[in-house]
Amino acid sequence: MSATRPAPDLPDPLPPLIDAHTHLDACGGTDAESVAAIVDRAASVGVGRVVTVADDLDAARAAVAAAHWDGRVYAAAAIHPTRADTLDVATKQEIERLASDERTVAVGETGLDWYWPGKLEGCAERDAQIEGFRWHIDLAKRLGKPLMIHNREADDDVLRVLREEGAPETVIFHCFSSGPDTARACLDAGYVLSFAGTVSFRNAKALREAAPLVPSDRFLLETDAPFLTPHPFRGAPNEPYCLPYTARAFAELRGEDPHEVARCATANAERVYRLAAGGARPE
Fold first, then answer.
1. Could you tell me if 115 and 153 are in contact, meaning their C-beta atoms sit under 8 angstroms apart?
2. CA of 27: how far to CAs of 7, 23, 110, 136, in Å?
């Protein structure tokens, strides 16, 4: 993330919204007070609840802690594919414990990333990523929780591994960034597509062609904050309060009313993550 630009202004409110994928720890949410401040800003523009997501073991611990500090926060726990080579026995046991927590609503983010191997020092190689992905698929099925996918330049392999392993009941493609063909393949398989600020990027032609194809009951909206700040704020720090910018860009692509898009996204998130309508997760 580049923070060379000032933070975006608060958007016009667009209730109700749920940020289906964010990283509160990376946004500065390191204790109960700072988490509450981030969620308060989001709530002021209609983003009343957030799912904070792990990409390593420390982040998984932080995500579950944040979900216990604030009832508007839910967690997802997993090891990011680029760190899949850290999945030793002890780490698997800890991730399984955190993913089993009552405040954890998904196993994620996991999947495959073919962009970083060879570019990023220490990045897990393909075999380790595939092995880690298979383990997370099994974990999601054993726990009966949604599987949250990170897919970067690995469309065919992600879909292949899901077919080979047998996908969990609910699969979410976080920050969906592929084109119409992959969108159709995911939809045919029954998966849910989650859209981030990238859907507002003018150069994301294939993604912007895919967005209108998704049925109203099969999309989520997310920030992936502090990353992927929506247009026209690229290069500025992102936070859950920025989600209405993405929601409006998504609605424009689909030719739909932003308030109806927000309503659908929220209903979908409540269904996918098994959240009580308009409030806390049921016991």
1. yes
2. 12, 6, 20, 25
Q: Compute the distance between CA of residue 221 and CA of residue 56 in angstroms, rounded to an integer.
A: 23
Flag whether pLDDT at 283 surpasses 70. no
Distance CA 272, CA 171 (A): 9
Ordered strands of the 219-221 beta sheet: 17-22, 47-53, 73-77, 104-113, 147-152, 171-173, 192-195, 219-221
Tell me yes or no: is domain 17-273 CATH 3.20.20.140: yes
In this prediction, residue 2 carries a pLDDT of 42
Q: How are beta strands 73-77 and 47-53 bridged, if at all?
A: parallel
**CB neighbour list of residue 79: distance below 8 Å, 6 or more residues apart:** 54, 55, 56, 57, 60, 86, 87, 91, 95, 110, 132, 136
- Residue 277 phi, psi dihedral angles, 5° rounding: -60, 120
Distance between CA 266 and CA 185 in Å, rounded? 24
Give the three-state DSSP class for 112: strand
Phi-psi region of 80 (alpha: psi -120 to 50; beta: other; left: phi over 0): beta
CA 113 vs. chain centroid, Å, equals 15
Question: Quick check: 3 pLDDT over 90?
Answer: no
User: What is the per-residue pLDDT for 5?
Assistant: 87
103 closest CA partner among 141, 168, 31, 54: 54
Segments making up each domain of the chain, as ranges = 17-273
